[in-house]
Amino acid sequence: MICMNCSKPACLEACPRDSIYRREEDGVILIDEERCHGYRFCMEACPYKRIYFNEQRVVAQKCISCFPRLENGVAPACVRQCPGRVRHLGHIDDPDSSIHKLVRKWKVALPLRPDFEVEPNVFYVPPMLPTAFDENGEFDEEASRMPIEELRDLFGPGVDQALATIASERDKVAAGGHSELMDMLIAHDWKRPARTVPRGSRHVGSAPAALAGGRLTPMAALLGTASDHRRAAASRCAVRAPRGAVRVPGRRAGRIGSQR
Ligand code: SF4
Ligand code: SF4
Questions:
Q1: What does the pLDDT read at residue 237?
Q2: Which of 77, 68, 69, 67 shows the shortest CA–CA distance to 28?
Q3: CA distance 131 to 241
């Protein structure tokens, strides 16, 4: 599972070996496998449970945000290879990026469980509420199979407005109009989400959209990482460098082969 590359990573704070660090250049959170002694405090601390334990090597491992690919200007494998083009990748401060538009402009991509207070840099477009069936097996347009309270628990109070925005834009397209938001969610310009990442890009991200029951059901996951804490005031997605997050020169994550 994708690491959220949190701005306040609980995993990093929990490691007594100081094995977890943030890369200054792109904000990616990595585990130094040479320092890790397999205590697993990070696994307990991560509220999203994105860290697993390699029993054979006795080290904690997680998504590495495909940082070797990023360093070569290539999008992460899950972004590049997803046939549904459900993930977007971009710099949240870049007004032309889909990440910026979905998170900042349209405000339909939301952090998962913001109450965890670790400031994740992966954002999700919540699913449209599916219509429930009545006792006769007919659609009940007034009822939903997914309680809105559940979505508020998952995405916070902003989910109501996000769903209203998506529904409004969907209806606009259904009436023959055009919507920038819908074009992004259905990956109309599918090459953009998986485009090559400019070298030196500080932020990366992703997003899915799916068709279900004949209705557009966006379920987008967006990832934006940032390392420049000087931008923190202007960017929710920017990383506020936490205590102990200073990169130790010469450190490196485990071999990529070991992450497969
Ligand atoms: S999602 Fe978990 S493993 Fe990833 S940075 Fe956040 S706390 Fe750490
Ligand atoms: S493909 Fe890369 S970015 Fe995607 S989940 Fe795996 S390691 Fe993370």
A1: 28
A2: 67
A3: 43
Looking at ligand 1, which atom is closest to the CA of residue 5? Answer: 5
pLDDT at 223: 43
Q: What is the pLDDT of residue 9?
A: 97
The low-confidence residues of the chain, meaning pLDDT below 50, are: 195-196, 198-260
- State the closest ligand 2 atom to the C-alpha of 3, by its place in the atom list counted from 1: 8
Any atom of ligand 1 within 6 Å of the Cβ of 239: no
The pLDDT assigned to 113 comes to 97
* The domain over range 10-68+239-259 is classified in CATH as 3.30.70.20: yes
Burial of 71 (0-12, 13-18, 19+ CB in 10 A): middle
Q: Residue 189 Cα, ligand 2 centroid: separation in angstroms?
A: 22
Closest to 125 measured CA to CA, from 65, 167, 179, 172: 167
**Stated length of the chain:** 260
Ligand 1 pocket member 28 (CB < 6 A): no
The pTM (predicted TM-score) of the whole model is: 0.75
Minimum-distance ligand 2 atom for the alpha carbon of 69: 2
Reported as a single tens digit per residue, the pLDDT across 36-56 is 999 999 999 999 999 999 999
Strand partners, 222: 88, 123
Domain boundaries, the chain: 10-68+239-259, 72-231
Residue 18 C-alpha to ligand 2 middle, in angstroms? 23
